[in-house]
Structure prediction request, 290 residues.
Amino acid sequence: MRYFLTISSVILSWTLPGFVENIQLYLFLWVVGTIGMAHGSLDHLVHRASEKGNRGMLRFYAGYLLACGVVAMVWWLQPLMGLGLFIASSAYHFGQAEIPGLPGNTSLSLWVRRSSWGIALLMIPLIAHSQAIQRSLLEWQFATSGQALQQSGLAILIFAAGCYGLASLGGLPPKGNAFQRASLLPVASWIGYAFLLWVTPPLWGFTLYFGIWHAWPALEKLATALQLNQKKDWLKALLPNYFPSLLATLCWIWLASWWAPEYMVAGLLVLLSALTVPHTFVFERLYRKG
Prediction:
C-alpha cells in the first residue's frame, strides 16, 4: 500500500503539477492533523510504559509543555535559531526510526549517525527546490539567494554524509546481520526518500515522506509496543492528547485566516517544531532497543 500510494503521488505530481500545487497545503494539513498528530499523541503512553505505571505523569506533562513553550519562545525571539532547532530535532527523530540501537553502538556514534542521516535527508529539498523554499522563508526575513541555499545545502549534506560514515566505522558490529541492518538498510532507505523529495514539490514530497514512511510505521510500532489491538484501545489512548492538540491547531488556523493569513503556515511550523522536541525525547525510549 505504501509503495502504491507513493508511486501514484509521484506520477500525479509529474502529470498534474498545477493540481498538486493547489492541494499540497491541504494534504499536508490533513496528514499532520490525522496520522502525524496521532502518532505524537501517544507520547504519554510511551512514557507511562517506560515508567511501568502512572508514576511521574504530572512531571511528564509539565516538562512536555515547558519544552514546547521554550521552543516557541526561541522562534519568537530568534527565528533563524528556531528553524535550526526544528531541523536538528526533526533530523534526529527521523534517524531514530531508521537506525535502531545496537549493542555495538556507543551513545555518541548512534547520536551522530541518526542526526547526520536526517540532516542529509532534509538538505535534499533545500538543494532541489531552493527557489520555492526561499519564497516560503521571506516572511521570516532570513531568505537568501537560491544559489546560496543550494550551496549551503550541498555543503551540509557532504559534511553529514562524512559524519555518518565515520560514526558507522567506529560504532558498528564488524559483521553479520546486525551490521547489514545497521549500515546498509538506512543508506538504501535514504536513497529512496531522497529521490522522493528530489522529484516532487517540497511540501508534497515531505508530506508523502512524513505521512507514509515516518508516521504510519511509527503508529504500527506503537500499536505493537503498547498492545493497542482494537479500535476502542486506540480511542482510549488518543483521547488525552489528540483532541486538545487538534483543537489548538484548528483554533490557530481559524485565527490566522482572518488575522494574519501570511503567517498561517509559519505558525503551524512553530507548533510542529514545539511538539517535535519533546516528542523526540519520548520516542528515544521506544527506539532505544531498535
About this structure: The chain has twelve helices and no strands. The first helix runs from residue 2 to 15. The mean pLDDT is 81.
